UniProtKB/TrEMBL annotation:
<dbReference type="InterPro" id="IPR037523">
    <property type="entry name" value="VOC_core"/>
</dbReference>
<protein>
    <submittedName>
        <fullName>Lactoylglutathione lyase/glyoxalase I family protein</fullName>
    </submittedName>
</protein>
<keyword id="KW-0456">Lyase</keyword>
<dbReference type="InterPro" id="IPR004360">
    <property type="entry name" value="Glyas_Fos-R_dOase_dom"/>
</dbReference>
<keyword id="KW-0560">Oxidoreductase</keyword>
<feature type="domain" description="VOC">
    <location>
        <begin position="9"/>
        <end position="131"/>
    </location>
</feature>
<dbReference type="InterPro" id="IPR029068">
    <property type="entry name" value="Glyas_Bleomycin-R_OHBP_Dase"/>
</dbReference>
<keyword id="KW-0223">Dioxygenase</keyword>
<dbReference type="GO" id="GO:0051213">
    <property type="term" value="F:dioxygenase activity"/>
</dbReference>
<dbReference type="Pfam" id="PF00903">
    <property type="entry name" value="Glyoxalase"/>
</dbReference>
<dbReference type="GO" id="GO:0016829">
    <property type="term" value="F:lyase activity"/>
</dbReference>
Length: 168
């Protein structure tokens, strides 16, 4: 465990796009990122954006026609997730922008998380949520709360044990 690579934070996510202009427009006008200077030594077309403590690096595809595009919104697909202040405001804005989305509700011991999923212009899944409603409970080898196999972790016991860990 620990921090073997001495990591500090997520710096950026790179996304290859069909149209740099359309993707910049989406990330600026829908998600609220702003363009920042990128090194002039980079010999390919791209844009760097920043907000919320992370960067998005958009890279123009060398062969945009060959890129496949996800058309089905699947909450279990790879995605980037952002927390928001108001799910109702996000949903209203997506409706105004005529952006197709899927709603999902997660419940854990009476705590609810709302999720909205939609695609960027290249089919990258975006999630907007109020995920901070669910407390972060570390997994521990000594904990009786979690039962983990190589591929899945599930809560074994109920809210009482989770509350005890949070109180520590």
């Amino acid at each position: 465990m620990g921090n073997p690579l001495q990591l500090k934070s997520l710096n950026h996510i790179s996304l290859v796009c069909r149209s740099l202009d359309k993707s910049v427009d989406f990330y600026v006008n829908v998600l609220g990122f702003f363009p920042i200077k990128r090194p002039t030594s980079l010999a390919f077309n791209g844009a760097w954006l920043f907000n919320y403590g992370i960067g998005i690096h958009l890279l123009q595809s060398d062969d945009p026609e060959s890129m496949t595009k996800n058309v089905h919104i699947n909450p279990k697909d790879n995605h980037i997730s952002f927390q928001c202040e108001s799910m109702a405001a996000v949903e209203n804005k997506l409706q105004q922008m005529k952006i197709e989305y899927v709603k999902n509700l997660v419940e854990e011991n009476g705590i609810y998380v709302d999720q909205l999923f939609f695609h960027d212009p290249d089919g990258t899944m975006i999630e907007i949520c109020n995920c901070d409603n669910i407390p972060i409970v570390p997994l521990s080898e000594n904990s009786t709360i979690w039962s983990c196999s190589r591929f899945n972790c599930n809560i074994q016991n109920q809210q009482q044990q989770i509350q005890q860990m949070i109180s520590m």
